[in-house]
Every structure is written in C-alpha cells, then in structure tokens.
Design brief:
This protein is α/β, with parallel strands linked by helices. Helices cover about 50% and strands about 10% of the residues. The strands form three sheets. It has a five-stranded parallel sheet, with helices on one face. Helix 17 links the parallel strand 9 and strand 10.
Length: about 475
C-alpha cells in the first residue's frame, strides 16, 4: 500500500499549499542545534545499512518498541542490525497517531523514494532497497546535507573536545555546508559528583594547557576554550538543565566551593546552587562579549528508571518532562546578566507545555529594543517536537510575542535523516497560518504570509546568528 505522504501532506487548503510549495519549501536549512557526530561529517561517512543511519541511538524509537513489548535485545542489545530493523518494522503499524509514524514514512519517501507503508511484510524489500541507495555517493553524510540544502549545521560539543573535525572541514574549500561547534559546558557545572567532575577538569587541563589548581585558573581554561570555539566560527552556547539556578554567589565563595570539590568533598545543596549560578553568569558574560546566542534547554527529568540506567546507561529513552517551577529562578538568572547589560541573545526551550506561557511572557521581560527578537521562545523540543507540540509553541509565541521574529525549527537529532523535520515543521506552520486566513483572522495576503513563512523557515535565523554562510 502506498503511503499517505503526498505533495499535500498536512496541507489542508489551497492557501496552505501555496504557502508551502512556493515559499517555505524554497528556503534552505540552517540547522542551529543538532547532535550529529562531527567526525561523520568531516569524513563524509558512507552508512553501511538502514539500521546504522536510522535506528542506532534513536531513543524515540526504542521507547515505542518497548511499549510494543519488544525485548531490549532489539533496542540496545546484541541482536543483528537486520533483526533490530525488523523489530522496528513490526512496531511501526502500532505507532499510528504517534509522530514516529509520520517521521518514518516521510523519511523513507524523501531520502529513499520509498512510497509504501513499513510493516513486517514490507520490511525485507524496504531493507534491500534502502541499503542499495545508501551505497550511492549522494547518501553519504555530506551528500545528505547537500541534498537537503543545509547551509549551516551546528553540532553540540563539550569544551574539552578537540574540535579536530571542525578544523578539518573548515580547512577545505568548496563545501556547500558550513559546520560550526556549539559550546556546551554542562560538565563544568556537575560538582555533585566530585570524582567525575575532577576527572573532567583534568581533561580540561590537558586540552587547554592550563593547570586548574585554583578557581581563577579554571575560569581561564574555560575562557580559552570559549575563545577557541569562536575561532572556528562557533556563535552558540547550550545548556541542558532541569532549571536555572539562582543563588547569588561571590567569586570568593565560588572559589571555596571549587576548592572543596577538588578535595573530594560532596557539596551541600546551597553550595551547588551558588556555584552553578556563578558559572552560568560567567558563561553568559562570555557569550555576550562575543555576540553569541545562549540556548537554555530546560525541564527534562533524566534517567528515571534506575534498573535500566544501570543496565544500558544514560540517553537510552528513560527521560521525561519535569514539573519543577521555572519562573522565579529563570527570571533571577536572566536579570543578573541584564543588570549590567550583559545578557546575550537567548533562546529558551521549554519541555513542559504547561509552562509555555511562563516562558512566552519571560522573553518579553528582557527584549532590549536594539536586537529584533533578541529573546526567543525556542521551537517545540524533545517530547514536544511533534505536530501538537509545535502548534502549542507557535500559538504561545504568537499570543505573547512576535511570531514574525521567530528563528524557526531545528533537528536536535543524532540522525542525518532528521532534516525532514524542517519540512514537517514548515508544513505545520503553513497550514496553521492558512487556517487563520480562511477563518478571516488573518488577511489572505500571499506577500505578507509568504514573507512570514520564508523568514521563519530560514531568513530570521540567518540574520539572527550571523554565521558565515
């Protein structure tokens, strides 16, 4: 049976189709946040089979498979690549109305030209056809970027990463895609476990060449790495936090906490809050001084299943939405930076849909009247990067801020096949605007609406981040 992924997928009116096909789809992609391995881009990896490019490391699919009664052997276990693919194929028909059903068939059609539903009966044929196409040069890592007209892709990188793959790609000429690093110093904050923290500090010493025996020298090493990221075109930082910390802290206090953790002492809760607040302000000032954009991914509750965490480790599909209060500490943190006019451009990603309006009003508190859209309500993230979650985010931003200044969608993915999420988002955006126009809530003005979708699809992000394209 043919798939439902037609030219009019998700586009319920002639106006929606006009906006998508003649405006949104014409724009290239600026993917400013993803988790693609830089090495695979630099080396232009050719993928050996459909499992490797599509299923390996995909905790979205693992969650669905477990819910379908599929053994862990076929998720993170030792089953063969083909066996794992077949287990996924058995699960796909059970994912109806889950976004995975949309993404699966959209990706099969866009990347492999496969126009049939995936299930247990079609799995062998789809496996063979997809693997044959994966062997072609246009399906290498860089081939996929070029095929999808990806102008910029920003990876997510630890300050201790050498960034040798970014350097390699930067030294080459003729690439149609620019790859830039994103500074994600989460491990610099993780003093709750002194042993792991001190091990990370040792790695920082090695890569920076700076002995971090004092807190001042530790800050020097972090500043040096921030400078290095900038030299390679990096213009973004990123922090994955349950919530922002806000417990004002002096340099002397932070230095004392750092010293005690160096000695193996587990800090108390207040010390952790003070230290994290100080460092996050430090990072914010570094970003502001260089004109960077700070990304705050807030609201995840990670590693909830102790048994499975011990068995298969983190980032394997056992994370969920947190319901911690966000407003007070987030406002306090942003205000600390703003008091000295050192608040950088900032994107707030909210994972709890109940707090969309909290975040939507928060960005309005710190717009500065100089930088259009300086404060951004980030696109639907993780559990919310699906049709309903995207519409919730678009509605909250529209009601509380300026949708016209939104920097748009990203993949936030480890898979090269996830670039179709940009298409998914653009179709949802065009249909949403068209519905409003048909109801008489917006003018049916193709110039107005066409420019709006072009801006959100690409042009706003290009202006906002200031990358070399």
């Amino acid at each position: 049976m043919k798939t439902f992924i037609t030219d009019h997928f998700l586009l319920q009116s002639d106006l929606a189709r006009e906006l998508y096909h003649h405006h949104a789809s014409q724009e290239p992609i600026l993917d400013y946040h993803c988790h693609l391995p830089p090495q695979e881009v630099a080396e232009d990896k050719q993928f050996r089979n459909l499992y490797e490019i599509w299923l390996a490391g995909d905790h979205y699919k693992w969650r669905a498979m477990r819910a379908n009664g599929i053994s862990e052997k076929y998720c993170t276990g030792d089953a063969s690549d083909y066996e794992k693919f077949c287990a996924w194929a058995r699960t796909v028909p059970k994912t109806v109305r889950n976004p995975l059903y949309h993404w699966t068939h959209l990706e099969l059609k866009r990347f492999f030209g496969i126009d049939e539903l995936l299930d247990e009966s079609t799995a062998p044929r789809i496996w063979e056809e997809a693997n044959e196409k994966l062997a072609s040069p246009e399906m290498s890592a860089r081939g996929i970027l070029q095929k999808n007209r990806v102008k910029v892709v920003c990876t997510t990188d630890d300050p201790v990463d050498l960034l040798e793959h970014h350097q390699k790609l930067r030294s080459e000429t003729g690439s149609s895609t620019k790859m830039y690093p994103t500074f994600r110093p989460d491990k610099a904050l993780a003093i709750e476990s002194p042993e792991a923290f001190n091990e990370w500090v040792s790695a920082l010493e090695t890569v920076s060449g700076i002995r971090c025996e004092t807190f001042d020298r530790f800050l020097d090493a972090l500043r040096q790495r921030h400078d290095f990221f900038h030299s390679l075109g990096g213009r973004l930082s990123d922090h994955g936090l349950e919530r922002c910390s806000f417990e004002p802290c002096t340099l002397e206090e932070a230095a004392q906490i750092y010293k005690s953790v160096q000695g193996g002492e587990v800090p108390d809760e207040i010390s952790v809050e003070k230290y994290k607040t100080f460092l996050m302000v430090f990072f914010g000032r570094l970003d502001a001084a260089k004109g960077w954009t700070k990304q705050l991914h807030l609201g995840a509750q990670r590693n909830n299943n102790t048994r499975m965490f011990r068995s298969v480790g983190p980032d394997t599909g056992f994370d969920s939405i947190n319901d911690l209060p966000q407003a007070c500490t987030l406002a306090g943190y942003l205000d600390l930076l703003d008091q000295t006019d050192e608040l950088p451009k900032t994107i707030l990603y909210n994972l709890n849909p109940a707090q969309n309006y909290v975040f939507g009003t928060m960005i309005g508190n710190f717009q500065d009247g100089r930088t259009p859209g300086k404060m951004q309500l980030g696109s639907g993230w993780w559990h919310l990067d699906q049709k309903e979650g995207m519409e919730w985010q678009l509605n909250a931003l529209s009601n509380l801020g300026l949708l016209s200044r939104f920097v748009g969608m990203l993949t936030d993915s480890r898979s090269f096949l996830s670039f179709s999420r940009h298409e998914y988002f653009r179709r949802i955006l065009c249909d949403l605007l068209a519905r409003d126009a048909i109801k008489g809530e917006l003018p049916s003005d193709l110039k107005l609406l066409g420019n709006l979708v072009r801006d959100i699809s690409y042009r706003n992000a290009s202006r906002y981040f200031g990358f070399e394209v």
